[in-house]
Amino acid sequence: MNSTRPHDDAMVELLREDAAFAEEYLAASLEAIDEPDGREALLMALRQVAQAQGMDAVAERAGMQRESLYRAQSPKGNLTLKTLLAILNGAGLRLTVTRTSPNPGAGDPLITPNSSIARRTIMSDNESHER
After folding, report:
1. What average pLDDT does the segment 17-36 reach?
2. What's the whole-model pTM score?
C-alpha cells in the first residue's frame, strides 16, 4: 500500500532540508503574484517557509505574535507590506526588486556611469578610501 502525504507537509520538509530553496520558492511565488490565485500561492509559500523554520521562531524574529503570523498568512489574510517585510526578515530573507524588461522607458539603464547616483557613489567610495 502506497502512503501519501499532503503537499504542504512535503514542501515544509523540503524547505527544512534545503534552506536556500526557500529563497527560490518565495521568489517564484512573488513573480507569479499577478496570476490567478497568485496571492494565495504567495501566502501559502510564506506559511510553509515559516513552518519549516518554526512558526514561534519566525514570529519572534519578525517581532509579532504567533497568532498574528498565522492570521497574516491565512488564505483570507490581509498581508500588508509591513507584515510581509517583517515575515521575510523573520525568515532571514528580504524583498528585492528587479526590472520587468531589459529596456524601461527610453531604453536607458536606470543608473549609468555618468548619472548623479553613480557619481555620488564613486565620490563616496573615493572619500572613504582616502580616510
Report:
1. 87
2. 0.66
